[in-house]
Amino acid sequence: MGNCSNKPAEQVDATANTKAAADTAAKPEQAAAGGSAPPNPMIFALMRNGHEVLRGAMADVSEHLDNGDAEAAAATYLKFERWMGLHKRMEEGNGSPETPRGFFAILDENFDGVAKENGLYADHEALDKLEHEMSEACKQEEKDLGRLKELWANFKAENESHLKKEEGVMMPRVMQLKKNGTNLKQVMKTEILPLVGDVDSEDFEFFVRFANETLNKHTGGMPRVRVFDHALWACVEESTWKKCDEWIKESVSDEHYSQLQAAINGVAA
Fold it and tell me: pTM of the predicted model, to two decimals?
């Protein structure tokens, strides 16, 4: 990969066409909902729509707390925390310079340390502390609803801010990588997705199921299930996809599953 200058997003998106492309990357499901032609897989929807998985699960935790259901809030939070850990691993890598290195390493390599310079690693460290406090409270036999609400409010505010910050840093650079001729599919297949775990692992199955269960519920009026899973389909081997397809079918509505099959089979929307 060639080394690109670390320009602010507004400089990278210097032209109207490039700006439109960056907006497409920022919310891939909007582009996917637009035309009538068969959609192409939007590979980095695995990262961007991963943020929508997190936002959807956060909404579920908040709903349980608002309803005074500490047990349900705790159970949902612990699933959310597990999935967020997998997503974070896809970003940060395995702590080694060896492949798979993670999304942040790719960004730093191509854009003069942009992830480090913008504090994305440091943000994760700060969030880790808030996560730990929330996790410990959720694991107590007797749940303290007031304490959970307090801890959740602090974490939620910080995490929402972090997600927006990441999107502002990451997605315009994805479009720049594409413009520069980087094979995004290969990057995802070799440097990012393997960090979820082996395809036969519990982590991989959980990653697919929880993402689909959450996006199925929290669509935002967009085809988030189809966009996320179409990207996954493009990045895994056929034998792996057979497993994923089963998990997805069990996790989403018939309508969302049909939308995904149409995209895979090249049927126009």
Answer: 0.86
Distance separating alpha carbons of residues 87 and 93, to the nearest angstrom: 10
Question: What does the CA dihedral 106, 107, 110, 115 come to, rounded to 10 degrees?
Answer: -130
104, 121 contact by CB (below 8 A): yes
d(CA 167, CA 232): 20
Q: Judge contact between 227 and 29, C-beta under 8 A.
A: yes
If pLDDT is split at 50, 70 and 90, which confidence band does 85 have? Answer: very high
Cα 5 from chain centroid? 25
The token duo for 216 is 């199925």
Which residues neighbour 98 within 8 Å (Cβ) at sequence distance 6 or greater?
A: none
Q: What is the pLDDT of residue 112?
A: 97
Q: What percent of the chain has a predicted confidence (pLDDT) above 90? A: 83
SS3 1: coil
Give the chain's length.
Answer: 269
C-alpha to C-alpha distance for 79 and 27, rounded to whole angstroms: 24
d(CA 192, CA 156): 25
Q: How large is the average pLDDT for residues 165-188?
A: 97
Question: What is residue 240's three-state secondary structure?
Answer: helix
Q: Is-contact 118 169, C-beta < 8 A? A: yes
Say how far apart CA 194 and CA 117 lie, in whole Å: 26
Among 196, 199, 257, 250, CA closest to 225 = 257
Average pLDDT over residues 35-43: 82
